[in-house]
Amino acid sequence: MKKRARILTLLLLLGITYWSFKAAMPTYSSDFDAEPTSFSIDRALIHVAEISKEPHAIGFKAHTDVRNYIVEQLEKMGLKPTLQEGYTAGDWSSLSYATNILAKIKGKSTHKALVLLSHYDSSPHSSLGASDAGSGVATILESIRAFLSENEIPENDIIILFTDAEELGLNGADLFVNNHPWAKDVGLVLNFEARGSGGPSYMLIETNQGNSRLIEEFTAANPEYPVANSLVYSIYKMLPNDTDLTVFRKDGNIQGLNFAFIDDHFDYHTAGDNYERLDRNTLAQQGSYLMPLLYHFANTDLSHLTSLEDSIYFTVPLFKTVSYPYSWILPMLVLATILFILLLVYGFKIKVLQARQIAIGFVPLLVSLLLTGIVGYFSWPILNWLYPQYKDILHGFTYNGYSYIIALTLLTLAICFYVYHKFKNIKTQNLLVAPLVVWLLISAAAAVYLQGASFTIVPVFALLISFMIVSNQAKPNPYLLIFLTVPGIAIFVPFVKMFPVGLGLKMLISTTVLTTLLFVLVLPIFGFYKRKNRLAVLSFLLFVGFMTSAHFNANFTEDKAKPSSLLYVLDADDNTAQWATYDNYLTDWTKQYLGKDKTIPNKHRDKTIDSKYKTPFSYVSMAPIKDIPVPKIEKILDTIIENKRYVTICITPQRSINRVDVFKNEISLEAATVNGVRLSDYALLDTTRKLVTHYVKDNEYSEISVVTKVNAPLELIIFEASNDLLTNENFSIPQRPRNEIPMPFVLNDAILITKTIQF
Q: Which residues have CB under 8 Å from 354's CB, separation 6+?
């Protein structure tokens, strides 16, 4: 291959890689003056700005303000919103008094209704909720406004549902699905969510049956920028993921489509989830989903969306959504295997393949996979050792995480180029046998164990064509070979970024291994490069550059603030107090209270409370006793009926609080209710977890009733918390420095009182 062709093909590969990311999303441009019937990003942003002024979880003042704003916007459209209120605990035993907002656009027919769903509460206690899920609320409000501007009556009823307390335990969805009369009429739900503040919005299906009919209708609706694939769908089904839509599927057998974005995951549930950081391109993509889907499903019979068959599906720029049934998986695998064998036989027959060179050709592939796998596996532990402050980013994705992804990708390329340069005497057609074997094995494994990933066979067919070309032509057309790399690059390159962003940098191994597998898909081109060692050096130098950039951006700033936590814990049993933190890496702000005398909590002595990701207190230290009113705990009932013990207590706060957590000793309960709501069987039978968390609104009481065996000793540990440590008059805690934010997923900035009761 001539030098010019090598340069052009390399530039084309870079262009195709860039295009595989860029073409997946629209580009924002100001559109405030767009036609009334069009979705306007600028008009949607007005809603985001209003919703995300303050944290607005249940029990927070802004919660009511946000609800009133949404109701007002629906009324401005001529709709008649209603509120659905009530206690619910869901499957998580997280009790709250939720208030859902509902409105309906009446359709012509009596077919099943379409639900447009998002939640309006933010995560406690510091998140502003601009993306999660102010963006979802804004997308629906603006889409409904544009839809109503058409003055057309849809075939189906359209239900607009903004749920409450999603962040606490999917409580609003539980309240609607199990208690609202409209729930029985629902045929499909479109749910808009977020786990970050930008990037492409992925479509995920929630169904108890097969997905084929949903994929057919999704494709027919023809959204402009779809991003979806059945691999993520298959993984999602195996993981304990929950959104409001999960309740529809599990409790109501109602299927639907989730739309959620995950980039900038470090903003999720933090003060960084604000109006300024919401990616405008992402909001544009959410609108580009909903508008065509709204028009399509508003006029489609939603009673015929169930299917027993699953489909493989993936999205490719220009081609959009590509799908085919699971029944094709085995025939495609068999066909590819047969073609591979025929090409091998033909290659040996015409003497362009040599067994010895083929055998040697496995060495660079296996060595590359081994080395890059080791690099990926140990990279995150090493980074945590070098930068211990990363441990306090509980998301597992750092502010400079994109630099690490690019750096590890470049290091992988450097390894691959260098290793394959050492085997430059092996002819390209012989080198291609090993990648074909490995990709066929991957496809076979997918066909058996993870069928949703079986689109791995698609680039195999392209590689087989390239194998045939280089086996028959001494000087193949390099641009034809470049064209044949497009399927593999367009489909799989986005995964290089997606897994470590969505699942944390502990998944950098997916970046390095997948990059290696993609590298060998491009061997029909790279095999003809004479000096791959130069590309190895270039890749390594770029790796050093990105790692250097990551290093200089490892510290925290106002724009990239460090999560920190502080609690005051008063033990009402022995009248002692402690300062506590979940931080592993203390700052000057937390060191004021957890300095030299800090200790690691004793699990058996110190009463601590775990939060999400099973994060316990990292340090505690002695604190002065403050005059904090202890909750009033009354035993209302303690009796034995028919060889069962019935106990009822009432916990009444004597101060303004946000939540009450009740833990029990290691016994199972036969029944339990809190404020009249029966707790889930999981809470009753599990002997190692909390009984209930009550997210308190208007300082309400918690009345707990349990049924146990007569001879079972019952112990309840009560944790009463208020998120007012920084404003409480008993304390003079300074505000955090501007380069710190409250740590998410944990109880924070809280005054916590603990009390143990034994029966």
A: 427, 430
**Count of H-run helices and E-run strands, the chain:** 22, 23
Residue 597 half-sphere exposure toward CB, CA atoms < 13 A: 7
pLDDT tens, 430-473? 999 999 999 999 999 999 999 999 999 999 999 999 999 999 99
- Between strands 320-325 and 562-564, the pairing is unpaired
Contacts of 276 by beta carbon, 8 Å cutoff, 6+ apart: none
C-alpha span between 159 and 311 (Å, rounded)? 28
**What one-character DSSP code corresponds to residue 733?**
P
Contact, 361 vs 434, CB < 8 A?
A: yes
The pLDDT of 519-527, averaged and rounded, is: 95
189 touches 290 (CB < 8 A):
no
CA 631 centroid distance within chain: 37
The chain-wide mean pLDDT, for the chain, equals 94
Strand, coil or helix: what is 278?
A: coil
Tell me, what DSSP letter sits at residue 266? G
Q: What is the mean pLDDT of residues 42-68?
A: 97
Helix axes 401-421, 508-521, angle to 10 degrees: 40
Question: If we measure between CA atoms, which residue out of 121, 71, 130, 72 comes closest to residue 98?
Answer: 121
* pLDDT score of 234 more than 90: no
Distance between the two ends of the chain, CA-based, in angstroms?
84
Encoded tokens for 77: 């459209």
Q: pLDDT tens digits, residue range 372-413?
A: 999 999 999 999 999 999 999 999 999 999 999 999 999 999
Give tens-digit pLDDT for 541-584. Answer: 999 999 999 999 999 999 999 999 999 999 999 999 999 999 99
Alpha-carbon separation of residue 41 from 274, 284, 298, 492 (angstroms): 16, 6, 22, 30
| Whether 510 contacts 499, CB under 8 Å | yes
Phi/psi at 366 (nearest 5 deg)?
A: -70, -40
The DSSP code sequence of 347-367 is HHHTT---HHHHHHHHHHHHH
